[in-house]
Amino acid sequence: MSSTTTRKTLLSGSRPTGRQHLGNYVGALAQWIPMQDDHDCFFMIADWHALTNNYNDTSSLPENIQYQVLDWMAVGLDPERATIFVQSAVKEHAELSLLLGMFTPLGLAERCTSWKDLVIEQGLEEMRTYGFLGYPVLQSADILMYQAHVVPVGKDQVEHIEKCQDLAQKVNVRYGEVFRIPQWKLSHAPVLLGNDGRKMSKSYNNCIYISESSEEMWDKIRVMVTDPARIRKTDPGNPEKCSVWDYHKVFTDDSRHGEIVENCTTAGWGCMQCKKVLFEAIDAHFAPARERRAAHEKQPGLWKDVLMEGNRKARERAQATMSVVREKLHLYPSNGSE
Known about the structure:
Elements: E1 8-14, H1 22-35, E2 39-45, H2 47-54, H3 61-75, E3 82-86, H4 92-101, H5 106-110, H6 113-121, H7 130-133, H8 135-145, E4 150-153, H9 158-175, E5 183-186, H10 214-221, H11 243-251, H12 257-265, H13 271-297, H14 302-328
Parallel strand pairs: 1-2, 2-3, 4-5
């Protein structure tokens, strides 16, 4: 399980959903960027995982992957300091997922919160698939493939890392030291709602995207839902009941937080003035990212080159892991040698 570097290995990723919105940035990307300085980072575009609930139409995957790579690089993920790759380009993920499935009790898979919520409680028959039931096993393969020390996750993903730990320990007990037991790094980033007050989602058409122009951002910020009790400009507000305040806590300089709270609770500002302060902060924050993305778009083949090299590095690490796995499990060598 030795690594080619003295730094700890980190694995994280997300499904290719296209343009990255502020929720993606706060919940994941902003956490990943500084980790490039002191971790051996693997950032995975999880296209196989995208099939678990979008298997009926995969036509948007190529474009979504392109947009995702460009946005990742725009905000600061650096191919020189991290490995950016596509899950399906590393076939070993499928092999290890199959092997881990042999060690997975059916009850362990059925206890997955997503499976219980969507299939058992909501009765969504289209989600009653082998792939959806087994996606935590594939996720475990993703992590164990790179012998990751740490996996940054939100609270809702902790149970998946616990399943991964269970599977790794189960294999290690029977076959020796095969896998490193990964640890999760919990993200405490706030959840940002969409500009309509609901969960930020492309399907709701309520997202604010990293790559949008200043004008597009303002058009979305100015209609954001605020404290419902502020019917008139003269009504005092409660920041804790306003999603705009959640954005201020992330993007507006701390030195202005007292001013914002004061003007909200005393009706010193109307909501539109508060939103203008927020817009200025967000616009300034992402201006460099927009410039970098525009520069990258002038090099049409850049994102493909990044993935080609990242896929190569990921396959190299994956093949080393699977060589150990096959040897420990007494499987026939992949090169056919005796």
